[in-house]
Design goal:
The complex is a heterodimer of chains A (383) and B (358). With 383 residues, chain A is α+β, with helices and mostly antiparallel strands. Chain A folds into 3 domains: 90 residues, Butyryl-Coa Dehydrogenase, subunit A, domain 1; 111 residues, Butyryl-CoA Dehydrogenase, subunit A, domain 2 (Beta Barrel), CATH 2.40.110; 121 residues, Butyryl-CoA Dehydrogenase, subunit A, domain 3. Chain A has 11 helices and 8 strands. In chain A, strands 1-4-5-8 form a 4-stranded mixed β-sheet. In chain A, strands 2-3-7-6 form a 4-stranded antiparallel β-sheet, with no helix packed on it. In chain A, helix 3 runs antiparallel to helix 8, helix 7 packs antiparallel against helix 8 and helix 8 runs antiparallel to helix 9. The longest helix of chain A has 26 residues. The radius of gyration of chain A is 21 Å and the shape is globular. Chain A starts with 7 loop residues before the first helix and ends in a 13-residue tail after the last helix. Chain B is of the alpha+beta class and 358 residues long. Chain B has 3 domains: 95 residues, Butyryl-Coa Dehydrogenase, subunit A, domain 1; 90 residues, Butyryl-CoA Dehydrogenase, subunit A, domain 2; 150 residues, Butyryl-CoA Dehydrogenase, subunit A, domain 3 (Up-down Bundle). Chain B contains 11 helices and 10 strands. Chain B has a 4-stranded mixed β-sheet, with helices on one face. Chain B has a 4-stranded antiparallel β-sheet with strand order 2-3-7-6, with no helix packed on it. In chain B, a hairpin with a 2-residue loop joins strand 9 and strand 10. In chain B, helix 6 packs antiparallel against helix 7, helix 6 runs parallel beside helix 8 and helix 8 runs antiparallel to helix 10. The longest helix of chain B is centred in the middle third of the chain and has 36 residues. The radius of gyration of chain B is 21 Å and the shape is globular. Classes of the chains: A alpha+beta (383), B alpha+beta (358). Chains A and B meet through helix 9 and helix 11 of A and strand 3, helix 9 and helix 10 of B. Bound molecules: flavin-adenine dinucleotide. Flavin-adenine dinucleotide sits at the interface of chains A and B.
Chain lengths: 383, 358
């Protein structure tokens, strides 16, 4: 059971990440354009080189794959530390720890996608959402039909694919028809950028730095060996990944960002401890939920239920905290000389992207009401 | 005074004008002030249809609308992003009534739109005002974080009952450190260093008149917030009726219904508070307290409502293809303008409790 204390080794790496952030990233924050998450190439190259030199790379990746083996608890800890800079959302920084979905790669895909991604040589993006299918992801329409010649032909469109412009390949969800050995279903494809028929139509401007893309697939032929996992079975495979992301992707960023804002408020003396105290307690509680779930994920237990609780709690608490801190600082909290407004605009998407707040609430309540989740999920969780 | 019909008429004028100008919304920059072309187009259009000098008395060329009528017009005007950045346009054609010392030529120039006058009330102790032996008022100190539009022409900087009129170019008065924000507004710091203002620019005994003027501005912000939130919420209702997920319209989902209901309640309360303050002022009462309360409640509510609208639209709400994230970024400033809401709420506590206790 999670005991409330980070393992020593994890704490050591977290501290190192934190000092890297203070030393290398915070001083570069002013280079971040207001509505994009990118830096001049040379700066980014130096940052990535620095991270590698300090060993701050692939730390959460299993040791069997050449990583540091810190697991989900480690991933949360590192990302919490990373969030002490508004540069947290730069794509290469996300790339230090690749999505676990890729762990399902077969031997050949491993060489082509997983290992280069772990090494930071290649980068993926994730294309599930469509105009008619956001929360209701199973309603996607993108068709992937076998052409009888060892390929699938993709036709359809995706929207809100983050970092598509910087990625080398896309993880694309498409509908495959029924076949002799499987029923119709949703299948996940690894599609290289530059594959004929695969096009980025445009990038969308948002409230924050993420500028997700609209993608178009027109008779895009993808070799059948680029199916990740089993045909027609993508959602079953992705379940665990979704759950782990709900714990380890957004919550640590939300908590780290809000913590930094509270600390800035305290050191600037813009609020009293009577105001800061209650906010800090809420963050502490959310953080405890996050690490407890991450710990269970590391123990290979089912965390679908609490993953939704973690995401719903951490993201809303953090938004509330950052909004208050903006207010405490006055008009300058609303401007770019302090990091709060940027944090707010970036983390605002957390209650929308990767499953909206309402969908998390729904998952939590449904699990309890239907009886497959327990109120006490500290040890057991999903029955 | 004007009649109720006049108020309705100007409300319609504002509604039609905003509808006609709405296509310009698309050319607003994501951040920072709109280009001169848009600003001028909006000014011209407002002048052309007479929507100018709303509160200024008819004798000096204004429309002489009541507080309540001004609020209603401002609600309409805020149904577009154009209304939000041009909030300061309320000052177009206005002047602070009852502030003795502003010459009639200045007043008339303001109403004609040739000059702009703004006020900045600073807390006791932030500036030093001292009458010099030469009969000039010496001002020293710094006012940080002032909306840049306030410092474009005439600015009455007041502390308590006394104030000075600052114009750009006044020796010892500098507008520095211009910086952007997450919205269209820019901020500046005002620096007074050995600034000496001659008798023409020294205003005394203006505390009450300025307080009333600030109440009017707070009420304009509150009314604008109501209009903006109402517009966004109306669009969200349409969206909820049309968007289907998991085989049902979002309108049938309780999670969405609660967002709607919370928003509707907050909007209603805000509107009532705006009108209460306006009616008090129109009846000759002191609207200071009521306007402060309306401003805090309505601007906080508008941010919360538009945030829910973003949520109801999902990913689309967060993107610039729809105007809501921009509305939110603009409205966020309203929680600071004419006083930080948290501080204002603190100031209001005694009065509010006293009223509740009656
Ligand atoms: C910045 C950003 C980056 C993104 N990045 C990616 C990415 O990289 N890859 C990707 O595939 N997608 C991405 N997304 C898409 C994101 O996952 C979707 O926006 C999200 O799933 C919501 O879908 P939607 O936008 O279609 O909203 P909808 O599903 O239409 O939802 C609109 C509103 O209705 C609510 N709602 C929907 N159904 C129900 C229901 N049954 N009961 C109650 N309420 C309901 C939602 O909670 C929401 O408030 C991104 C989105 C954003 C904004």
């Amino acid at each position: 059971m999670w005991n409330g204390v980070l393992p020593e080794k994890t704490q050591t790496w977290k501290d190192r990440m934190r000092s890297f952030v203070e030393r290398e990233l915070v001083p570069r924050e002013s280079l971040l354009p207001p509505f994009a998450s990118r830096l001049p190439f040379a700066e980014l190259r130096d940052i990535v080189a620095g991270l590698r030199a300090e060993g701050l790379w692939g730390l959460a990746v299993p040791q069997a794959l050449g990583g540091g083996g810190l697991g989900f608890v480690g991933l949360c800890a590192l990302r919490e530390a990373l969030a002490h800079t508004t540069l947290w959302s730069l794509a290469p920084l996300l790339g230090t720890e690749p999505p676990i979905l890729l762990y399902d790669c077969n031997a050949e895909q491993r060489e082509r996608y997983l290992l280069p991604t772990i090494r930071g040589e290649r980068q993926g993006c994730f294309a599930l959402t469509e105009r008619g299918a956001g929360s209701d992801a199973a309603a996607i329409q993108l068709r992937a039909d076998p052409d009888g010649d060892g390929h699938y032909v993709l036709n359809g469109a995706k929207i809100f694919t983050s970092h598509a412009d910087e990625a080398d390949y896309a993880l694309v969800f498409g509908v495959t028809p029924a076949h002799a050995d499987h029923s119709a279903g949703i299948t996940l494809f690894l599609v290289d950028h530059g594959t004929p028929g695969f096009e980025i139509v445009r990038q969308l401007d948002t409230m924050g730095g993420d500028r997700p893309s609209e993608l178009r697939f027109e008779n895009c032929r993808v070799p059948a060996d680029r199916v990740l996992g089993e045909v027609g079975n993508a959602f079953t495979m992705a379940q665990r990944w979704f759950a782990c992301d709900r714990v380890a992707l957004q919550p640590p960023i939300a908590i780290g960002a809000a913590t930094r804002c509270l600390m800035l408020a305290r050191s600037a003396g813009v609020a009293s401890d009577r105001e800061i105290g209650p906010m800090s307690l809420q963050l502490d509680a959310a953080r405890e939920m996050m690490y407890a779930a991450a710990w269970k994920a590391d123990a290979d237990l089912d965390i679908r239920h609490e993953a939704s609780m973690v995401k719903a709690t951490a993201t809303t608490v953090a938004l509330h905290v950052v909004d208050r801190v903006i207010q405490w600082f006055g008009p300058d909290g609303y401007g770019p000389n302090l990091p709060m407004e940027r944090y707010y605009r970036d983390i605002r998407r957390f209650t929308i992207a990767a499953g909206t707040h309402e969908i998390q609430q729904f998952v939590v309540a449904r699990g309890l009401l239907k009886g497959y989740a327990a109120l006490d999920c500290v040890e057991g969780g999903v029955r | 005074m004007t009649t109720e019909d006049d108020g309705q008429k100007w409300r319609r004028v504002a509604r039609d004008l905003i509808a006609a100008l709405r296509p310009l919304e698309e050319s607003l920059p994501q951040q920072g002030p709109p280009g001169v072309a848009i600003a001028e187009a909006v000014h011209r259009a407002r002048r052309a249809c007479g929507l100018w000098g709303l509160h200024a008395p008819r004798e000096v060329g204004g429309l002489g609308l009541s507080w309540r009528q001004c609020a209603v017009v401002q609600e309409e005007w805020h149904r577009s992003l154009l209304g939000l950045w041009s909030y300061q346009l309320f000052s177009a054609g206005e002047f602070p009534p009852g502030v003795g010392g502003l010459g009639s030529d200045v007043v008339e120039a303001c109403v004609r739109g040739e000059r702009r006058v703004h006020q900045l009330q600073v807390p006791e102790g932030s500036l030093t005002f001292q009458m010099g032996p030469d009969g000039k008022m010496m001002v020293d100190g710094v006012c940080p974080g002032v909306p840049a539009w306030k410092a474009t022409d005439l600015l009455i900087v007041a502390q308590g009952d006394a104030g000075v009129v600052c114009t750009l170019g006044l020796a010892g008065y500098a507008v520095v450190n211009r910086r952007g924000t997450m919205g269209s507004a820019e901020l500046v710091d005002l620096v007074f260093q050995g600034c000496r203002v001659g008798p023409d620019g020294v205003l005394e005994g203006i505390g009450d008149a300025l307080a009333r003027w600030q109440a009017m501005q707070r009420l304009q912000l509150a009314a604008g917030a109501v209009g903006a939130a109402e517009y966004c919420l109306e669009r969200a209702l349409e969206h909820l009726r049309g968007r289907v997920t998991f085989g049902k319209p979002l309108a049938d989902r309780q999670a969405m219904q609660w967002l709607v209901a919370d928003s509707a309640r907050e909007l209603h309360a805000s509107r009532l508070l705006v009108h209460r303050a306006a009616l008090q002022a129109d009846a000759g009462g002191d609207p200071t307290h009521a306007a402060l309360v309306a401003k805090v409640v309505a601007t906080d509510a508008a941010c919360a409502i538009v945030d829910r609208v973003i949520q109801m639209y999902g990913g689309y709400g967060y993107c610039r293809d729809l105007p809501f994230e921009h509305f939110w970024r603009e409205l966020r400033l309203y929680r600071f303008l004419e006083g930080n809401n948290e501080e204002l709420a603190g100031l209001a506590t005694s009065d509010v409790l006293a009223r509740l206790d009656r």
